[in-house]
Amino acid sequence: MDNDQLLRIILERFDKVDMQFKEVLNRLDSIEKSQQDDVKGTLHLISKKVDNILYDVDYLSEKTGKHDTKINNLEKRIQS
């Protein structure tokens, strides 16, 4: 086997390795993108749940305030 043949074989192998490396990079890019989409979806879901909880807390706080006012009025009536 002469040097030219050996060089061709080596170059062909490097070309194959280069192609495989590009495939790996493409797969990693797609995995990274899908994970980002998953994280975005999870954060959106958490945001909606937090919004619902805040709404419930505001509602209950308003109701508690009204009940406290009524209790206070009743206590004043009883004391008078």
TrEMBL record:
Listed name of the protein: Uncharacterized protein
